[in-house]
Amino acid sequence: MQAAFRKDVWLKSFVAALVLMGPALALGLTRDLDDPVDEDGDGWSRDVLLQVALPGFVVFTATNAIMSRMPTTLGFAMLREIGSDVSLKESIRTNMTNNGVVLALLLTMLLAMWQADPNETPHQRNEMWYRMLLIFGIEACTRGAVMVSLFLLYLEPLGDAGPWHFAVDNMLYLGEPASCIGLTMVYFVQSCVLWVFNTDAKVMGCLAYLVLGYCIMRTLVVAQYLQDWNSPTVSNGTRHSRTMKLISCKAVDGTG
Fold first, then answer.
1. How many distinct structural domains can be found in the chain?
2. What is the span of the domain harbouring residue 229?
3. What is this structure's pTM?
4. What pLDDT, in 10s, does the model give residues 56-115?
5. How far are the Cα atoms of 112, 176, 244, 255, 256 from residue 249, in angstroms, in the given order?
6. Considering the domain boundaries, does residue 40 fall inside one?
7. Are 193 and 21 in contact (CB under 8 A)?
8. In a domain? residue 39
9. Within 10 Å of residue 146's Cβ, how many Cβ atoms?
10. Is pLDDT at 254 greater than 70 in this prediction?
11. By three-state DSSP, how is residue 32 classified?
């Protein structure tokens, strides 16, 4: 049955959540280390570069590298089980609109968190990390929202057969807004965990890490279960043919 417990799914999700939430936990547990010093007062601090900017760039690059395998798979999720009596164009339009709304709501929250930060201690290490994680989330939100607009812009003029060719040829971009939601979620919960560490006892920060880490893990579990579901209205031959297209797309975009 679809709801049967699967250890492999839970284990993969647990490990993924552990890795994705790792930076916030590490920063919170080491919050007592000396903060960066801006000796010249001009904002060009070597300590900030080594303790925040460069490690932050590494986290940003690594997180995006991990998540880069998702867009094509998520794009294929819109095509794999679609029924013959369903309009692909309408389905994509609905999904893209939903993604755009979610991204807009998340962007509003991230901007509010960022602008509400008083920044009373501008060179406090974890506060800089907090603001940087929010910036990462804002980037993912903005990119995803623009992707939605671009995809719908080129989808709308197509006729009945055009959307299939368009979706298959652009499967990577079809799934990118959904992957941006996932990225934003990761940055958002890490920001929340780091905020708790910055403002409360470490034990409370660890609790926030466990609770919000479960949020990430559970989301990944459900996503994998839904990804593995097979519609009884789609034949195995049709599903296999569509899966071959996914493999071809992954070979082209380098995510295979």
1. 1
2. 7-31+45-250
3. 0.87
4. 999 999 888 888 878 888 888 778 777 777 788 888 889 999 999 999 999 999 999 988
5. 38, 14, 9, 8, 8
6. no
7. yes
8. no
9. 14
10. no
11. coil
The C-alpha atoms of residue 185 and residue 208 are separated, in whole angstroms, by 15
145-200 pLDDT, tens digit each: 999 999 999 988 887 778 888 888 888 888 899 999 999 999 999 999 999 998 88
SS3 256: coil
CA contacts within 13 A on the Cβ side of 45: 19
| Residue whose C-alpha is closest to residue 197's, from 66, 50, 19, 33 | 33
Whether residue 2 lies inside any domain: the answer is no
Place of tokens 């309408």: 90
Token pair of 232 as six digits? 């009884």
Tokens of 191: 């920001």
Write the DSSP string, 133-181.
HHHHHHHHHHHHHHHHHHHHHHHTT--SSHHHHHHHHTHHHHSHHHHHH
Residues in contact with 147: Cβ distance below 8 Å, sequence separation at least 6, in sequence order: 173, 176, 177, 180
Domain-located, residue 255: no
